[in-house]
Design goal:
Two copies of one chain form a homodimer. With 460 residues, chain A is an alpha+beta fold. The first copy, chain A, starts with a helix and ends with a helix. Chain A folds into two domains: 161 residues, 3-Layer(aba) Sandwich (Creatine Amidinohydrolase, Chain A, domain 1), CATH 3.40.350; 293 residues, Alpha-Beta Complex (Creatine Amidinohydrolase), CATH 3.90.230. The first copy, chain A, is built from 17 helices and 17 strands. The first copy, chain A, is globular.
Chain lengths: 460, 460
């Protein structure tokens, strides 16, 4: 209720209604065989009701909130058991009124409708029909919000959701503790010959036992250099690096998101250690630099510099690290951003426009590989929850592309890089809360992170 | 290739193209955070290519098949790794041609388009745009196929998919063996105080380790009388019956589907045993009656009669069992059908129209509760794969409804039924192949089914 009040307060002076469409069931194999229900995150934030097929309005002029949904009939009660009525749901969410779904059309008629970018086609179709627009205009376009989405409503929601409340931080801590346990199960399952899918199943099974499930499709790969590798058919082979980037979503729908990179045989090779230690150092550096008033963009840049400095010591690049970083050469090794906002979504509010969520009005997004992929650049504020996830990858196709284009031909030691073409990649990730004075790692005891900690944990 | 040829053969004389739209990714939390990809079942049957974003045509006049899709660009290779080209995919599926997706519009232009009922909004929208119709006409309407779906194509696909090939039976056997193992994990996890969700997670984790996942949302409930109970928040309590109805879908996307009902404490009470033994007897009876030439409708009716006969011996109904069954009174205790077709979908081809899939042209669907819910009534043919799943439930809301309406007031012992209002429900289910001479239970060793077998397995 406080959140809805805060929203109305932020939108003072706006006319009309904020319209929210809750998610429905989403077909998997056929229409009535659906994926596990996942409610819309903004819906959960403002109304909390974790049931499909609902809608709601908040009147921005009067502040009145109304829940729209259909009550069960006797057949529903026979097949689904007794469930709360729509009026009961509205009351427990502290809403002012409730009405059947069919009343929604007349409730919005003649009023200005504010809505945010939609994630699902079914919801976009409903809003489009009510607002008299085409569904396509209700979707985010690339990194930008939906053309027809309300800028004022989107901005207000982003402002609210970016600063986590005490209760939200508790829930994220809990999700992180469970996510860490899921990673521990994974680490303890690593053995040569095990099929990757076996470990993924154990992890996701734990996520389903203790939470809603995984907060995103588990990345578990001996080819860390391939970012979106979702095949898990390989057996664990001697001498590889196994990247596990996975998170658990709690029953309350808060995300966690951790990454660790393990040696498949339990011990890193010397060559692996050299790169691993750089990532580990960058990971710790980023955490130390994370504090209110600092922009996360500047933390990303500091990490890029340190990474290039250390890669220089290994003879993979040459020149002044700060200058190399300014030219964007860290992007060859870390083509992604340092981190992102996290909350009810693992990339929090991504559909509302990456720039609107992750960039202050006075920041513009870089076009450099790496820094340009940074989803969170903002000046940090207490209550922000972000990920810290530096990585180093050797991506043969990317290296060859840069080499062919002559990029950094005097600074990047392409010949030496060839001996890393079968290296894979390394990434480390923790979830971080920005506090009043600095930062705190979320969850329980930190997962083993250094070479020594990981080898110790794997060889007990 | 043989399947596509058989389809063209069945559709000889038809003009135009059969159009197939493969599934895309389906958003969960936000647009780029998707559920695990599940290809369309008919697509898998004819093309096998387990990748999102494809389309295909089969020219019914020339027999020529074309795969439509977009090749990766360099960015895709960097992020997703090297993947086969569309031409490679077409070649490995034995298709005649391939083309980029944008060529689909001109390929179908001016041709008659045949398509089947769609399961997903995104696919319906694509077909509707190509065929110049509204998406709504591409969806099944209740138990009937989509108004704009091709009757001839639908019929031909149903005829093909209802008779499983030898290779399909192998794959279903494998899915069933894994599904049985998943049930064994469940049974071994049962202990008073355990939260239901814990067991569900262990089961679904195994399904993800060894297969695609579950073939439908796991039903695991101490309220078996509530059919669509998907909440798993309860702890296992002494003296309850735990219904577990769950299946595993293999990596090749064939389903399994088993049900067992366990005593939460490891031993059935006398009252539970009396009802359990009736369900067990009905389960075995149905299996014995399953053979080519017999209609599954008649097996359902034989089960209904036996059930009423035994319920009569317990004093819950009175009168001649066959007459009681003819009046549909078994529907009070078993308001669902005896079983359904199973294959690439757990309710095979349900979107193509339940009557078209499960009823012969000379059969009409009953309106009785129970028999009317029978999804498979056809005369059995070797190669049919069906489930056999009788159950007895005591659903207070349904009993009260019948009582209030005066249904069977001389035959149904409503007073006695009141003592069963907290009983719950019992269901048993195996997956069955119709053979040349009779029937075979699919999978490995049968899961413990009788009171003795289950109590022995739970008290080792």
């Amino acid at each position: 209720m406080a959140r809805r009040r805060a929203l109305v307060e932020k939108l003072k002076g706006q006319e009309g209604l904020a319209l929210f469409i809750g998610n429905g069931d989403s077909p998997a194999q056929y229409r009535d065989n659906c994926y596990k229900f996942r409610q819309d995150s903004t819906w959960l934030y403002f109304f909390g009701i974790d049931e499909p097929g609902l809608a709601a309005t908040i009147d921005l002029e009067s502040g009145e909130s109304t829940l729209f949904g259909n009550d069960c009939d006797i057949d529903d009660i026979i097949w689904n058991g007794p469930t709360p009525s729509i009026a009961d749901h509205a009351a427990s969410a502290g809403m002012d009124k409730s009405a059947p779904l069919k009343a929604l059309e007349s409730a919005v008629k003649g009023r200005k409708i504010h809505f945010v970018s939609q994630s699902r086609q079914a919801n976009a179709a409903k809003i489009a029909a009510l607002a008299g627009i085409v569904p396509q205009d209700c979707f985010a376009q690339g990194k930008n919000p939906a053309p027809a989405a309300s800028k004022a409503l989107t901005r207000a929601i982003i402002e609210l959701r970016l600063i986590k409340e005490a209760r939200e931080i508790e829930l994220i801590d809990q999700a992180c503790i469970l996510g860490q346990q899921m990673h521990t199960i994974a680490r303890e399952s690593i053995a040569l010959g095990v099929v990757e899918q076996d470990i993924v199943g154990r992890m996701e099974g734990y996520a389903l036992s203790k939470g809603w499930g995984v907060s995103f499709s588990t990345i578990l790969t001996q080819h860390g250099e391939i970012f979106h590798c979702h095949s898990h058919a390989q057996k664990l082979q001697e001498g590889r690096l196994l990247v596990i980037d996975a998170g658990l979503e709690s029953n309350e729908h808060y995300a966690s998101d951790f990454t660790r990179t393990y040696p498949t045989g339990g011990r890193y090779t010397q060559k692996q250690k050299e790169i691993y230690n750089i990532v580990d150092e960058c990971h710790n550096l980023a955490f130390e630099l994370t504090k209110p008033g600092t922009s996360y963009r500047s933390v990303h840049i500091a990490v890029a510099e340190r990474m290039l400095e250390r890669l220089g010591e290994l003879g993979l690049v040459k020149g002044n690290a700060a200058e190399l970083a300014a030219q964007g050469f860290a992007g060859l090794f870390m083509p992604h951003g340092l981190g992102h906002n996290m909350g009810l979504d693992v990339h929090d509010m991504e559909d509302y426009g990456e720039n609107a969520v992750g960039y202050d009005p006075d920041q513009s997004r870089s076009s450099q590989l790496g820094l340009g992929s940074l989803r969170m650049a903002r000046k940090l504020v207490p209550g922000n929850v972000i990920t810290n996830e530096p990585g180093i990858y050797f991506i043969p196709a990317l290296i060859e592309q840069w080499k062919a284009q002559g990029i950094g031909k005097d600074c990047i030691c392409y010949d030496k890089l060839e001996s890393y073409y079968d290296f894979g990649g390394i990434r480390l990730e923790d979830d971080i809360l920005v506090t009043e004075t600095g930062a705190r790692r979320l969850g329980g005891d930190r997962l083993p992170a250094s070479v020594e900690e990981i080898e110790k944990a794997m060889n007990r």
